[in-house]
Amino acid sequence: MLVLLAGASGLIGPALRESLLADGHTVRTLVRREPTTPDEDRWDPAAGLMDPGVLDGVDVAVCLSGAGVGDKRWTDKYKKTIVASRVDTVGTLATTIAKTGSTAKLVCASAVGYYGDTGDRRIDETAPAGNGFLSGVCEQWERAADPARAAGVTVSHLRTGLVLAKAGGLLPRLGLLVKLGLGGKLGSGRQYFPWISLTDEIAAIRFVLEQDVPGAVNLTAPNPVTNAEFTKTLGSVLHRPTFLIVPGFGARIVLGEFAGDVLTGQNAVPAALEAAGFTFTHPHLRAALESELH
């Protein structure tokens, strides 16, 4: 299988690339700088520019690009960066695929933030979009693939939850706080954390690449937990107490507008994956944390 990968840096991209190469697949990577290796191809998604020839022989195009939503405070300028980094990349790939008549499938990153705050209500991929900035971002992100969809291309949207990985993402930061004795639930702690281990994240993406799972696909473990449950389990795994409480106003002081999404959550389950026959290695949180942290 020949896979074209955009967003090969960060947490998920390198792990996916390594997994594919280990199984004998070929991976070509889209980069915005001058290529430095034979398997790299330059593109300019901000300008909508991509060499159509890059798609020759490609079986699946994967777009994982996107500026981190928690990396900086949400100024108006950074909000535009968050949107553009997603819409421009998916849009350029989708438009180029449609224009060339490529038969490549298109698999695009998205997020469970699509659903907004769902409270205790358990949801799957049929749930509507929520309100708020991140919900709007996810809607635009997924609509950017419309040119490929209209051309008859199979398009999948990976609505990923909190990815648990030792090497990056949110888990190392939370783990450090817990080890320092500063761990605790955020706000009420009743908001749901739709999590997934990095092991299952990569396996699920591989499953979507190799099977036909069109449309929205929740990349979350089948047993979501509340923030309070997550914090307690993380403390237990690390053998540290987690008695503190970070009040909502404190989170807003530190995180700004992003705190509104941290203090809410989604009780999201992976109905599409399970219906297609995917089996999780880590369906339960404790085993996932023990595997990814040790």
Describe the protein's architecture and organization.
The chain is of the alpha/beta class and 294 residues long. The chain has a domain at 2-164 and 195-222 and 267-280: Rossmann fold. It contains 11 helices and 16 strands. The strands form 5 sheets. It has an 8-stranded mixed beta sheet, sandwiched between helices. Strands 7-16 form a two-stranded parallel sheet. The longest helix is centred in the N-terminal third of the chain and has 25 residues, at 76-100. The two termini are 32 Å apart.
Task: Describe the SSE topology.
Layout: E1 2-6, H1 12-22, E2 26-31, E3 40-44, E4 49-50, E5 60-63, H2 76-100, E6 105-111, E7 122-123, H3 133-143, H4 146-150, E8 155-160, E9 162-164, H5 170-179, E10 184-186, E11 192-193, E12 195-197, H6 198-210, E13 215-219, E14 225-226, H7 227-238, E15 244-246, H8 248-255, H9 259-262, E16 267-268, H10 271-276, H11 285-293
Parallel strand pairs: 1-2, 1-5, 2-3, 5-6, 6-8, 7-16, 8-13, 9-12, 10-15
Antiparallel strand pairs: 3-4, 11-14
Helix pairs in contact: 1-6, 2-3, 7-11
Sum this structure up briefly.
Helix content is 39%, strand content 20%. By secondary structure, the protein is α/β, with parallel strands linked by helices. The protein has a domain at 2-164 and 195-222 and 267-280: NAD(P)-binding Rossmann-like Domain (Rossmann fold).
